[in-house]
Amino acid sequence: MTGFRAFLAKEFAETMHTWRIWVLPGFLLFSAISSPILTYFTPALMDALGSQGTGIAITVPDPTASAAYLEYIGNLFELVMLAMVIAYGGIVNSEVRSGTGALTLAKPLSRHAFVLGKWVSQLAVLLVAASLATAVCVGVTAVVLDSGPALALVAAAGLWFAYAVLMLSVMVLLSVAFRAPAAASGAGVGAYLSLVVLGQFPRLAEVTPAELPTAATDRIQGIPAIWVTPLLTTVVASLVLLLAALWLFSRREI
């Protein structure tokens, strides 16, 4: 692919010097820090509310590292996923709409390299940010509670990363298919909600990416998790969506 390395270096430089470096890494780090702290203080907050004379008895289990990790993973599959959908709505079409895409492609750069450079650069951002955030979560949890099932959290975070790669591929394809970033983000929300709904049907979920959120929480709780087939289908679906984006962009008018 002509010009891939140079374009990828340009994408990394733009990511490091624009708002992109703060959005998803910021959400990930916020979840990593807030989850164990919120878990630790929730019983005290509930006791304080109960002492206000409301007459309502609220029973909250003692805070544990597992509970903090579950809160963190839950935030990743919900809060961070929605942030991804919004942030990546314009991952391709924003440059095309502004005209900079045409100028960039006028150079020795293939269309496949253009799309793949976008995908790879954000894949690297997700990998580094998720690794750092998970390490921070383990560290903060160890300080306020204990280390708990840290290895299980790492495994759960790995399943989340596979899910995030799938959604990245979805958003790259939608950003190629739709000219407006808002339209791509709207369709991305629909795709995400479809996976959530699919997860409510166990027999279907167990052979699709929709099972990964459940598998991640099961790993943290020490419950036997169904993750091999969902992970394989997630990898295959991610590659198919990326190939579809490459094919569609190669035939799109710029």
Q: What tags apply to this protein structure?
A:
11 helices; 254 residues; mainly alpha
Protein described:
This protein is mainly α and 254 residues long. It is 78% helix and 0% strand. The chain has helices at residues 4-17, 20-50, 65-87, 93-98, 100-105, 111-144, 150-177, 181-198, 202-205, 212-221, 228-250. Helix 3 (65-87) runs antiparallel to helix 10. The chain is globular. The mean pLDDT is 89.
Summarize the topology.
Blueprint lengths: L3 H14 L2 H31 L14 H23 L5 H6 L1 H6 L5 H34 L5 H28 L3 H18 L3 H4 L6 H10 L6 H23 L4
What is the typical, i.e. mean, pLDDT?
89
**Number of DSSP helices?**
11
Helix content: over 70%
String of helices and strands: HHHHHHHHHHH
Alpha-beta content class: mainly alpha
Oligomer: single chain
Q: Based on CA inertia axes, which overall geometry fits? A: globular
Separation, N- and C-terminal Cα atoms: 19 Å
Low-confidence stretches: none
Radius of gyration: 20 Å
Indicate the proportion of strand residues: under 5%
Q: How would a crystallographer describe the biggest sheet?
A: none
Count of DSSP E strands? 0
Provide a short characterization of the protein structure.
The chain has 254 residues and is mostly helical. The protein has helices at 4-17, 20-50, 65-87, 93-98, 100-105, 111-144, 150-177, 181-198, 202-205, 212-221, 228-250.
